[in-house]
Amino acid sequence: VKQEDLKGIKILITAGPTREYFDPVRFISNRSSGKMGYKIAEAALERGAEVALISGPVSISPPEKLHLFHKVETAEEMKNKVNELFQWADVIIKAAAVSDYRPKHKSEHKIKKSDEEIVIELVKNPDILKELGEKKGEKILVGFAAETDLPEGNAREKLIKKNLDMIVLNDVTKQGAGFEVDTNIVKILYKSGKIEEFPLLSKKEVAHLILDRIKAILKERA
Ligand code: C5P
């Protein structure tokens, strides 16, 4: 029985996409539905954790009994909210698909159609997770990686670069894995070098798996 086995643990979860505007009504975003992060929040609450959820724009409803639920649109807004809650959290799970780039300029007015072609210049967004990794201390940091090529190598590199305890990798080219769907096929890579591979599972099952691994890390440290 897993009930209440995460009692007293404070978990901060980010979920969903971000929107990066180039005029008041237009933006660059991605296909993230928020389902994976919301399922982790739901599973953590069932297990007695205190859960804060910071979400990009999604069409699903948050679970009840959250410690805090905050909606954001841009990576900048997400960064500010995550930083506000950083001290509070024991565990941070960054399931959000944060846009790596944003338009350099945001027009105050809706861009008018003309016969000219237009170019949208993109600049880099801050890497929220990487910044957390630099000040992580005793906190447990979990990242996600959605890859279309060289999945394991890329994920291992991120794990190290961002100073994470573990990274959950989904190959978004596989049927039943990644964005929008209710299932996922994941590999979990650990700081120790260990890799675990899992079959097709529901996102709720994946959520519990991730929480089991976090619990194991907490136990090891205690
Ligand atoms: O490097 P990449 O963006 O693929 O890394 C994915 C992980 O980093 C995810 O956990 C995502 O939430 C996080 N991330 C972030 N800030 C960004 C980009 C990604 O926190 N600007």
From TrEMBL:
The chain holds residues 180 to 401 of 401 of the full protein. This is Coenzyme A biosynthesis bifunctional protein CoaBC. The keyword Magnesium applies. CTP binds at residues 100, 110, 126-129, 144, 158, 162. Residues 11-222 are annotated as: Phosphopantothenate--cysteine ligase. Its cofactor is FMN; Mg(2+). Binds 1 FMN per subunit. Catalyzes two steps in the biosynthesis of coenzyme A. In the first step cysteine is conjugated to 4'-phosphopantothenate to form 4-phosphopantothenoylcysteine, in the latter compound is decarboxylated to form 4'-phosphopantotheine. Catalyzes two sequential steps in the biosynthesis of coenzyme A. In the first step cysteine is conjugated to 4'-phosphopantothenate to form 4-phosphopantothenoylcysteine. In the second step the latter compound is decarboxylated to form 4'-phosphopantotheine. GO terms for cellular component: phosphopantothenoylcysteine decarboxylase complex.
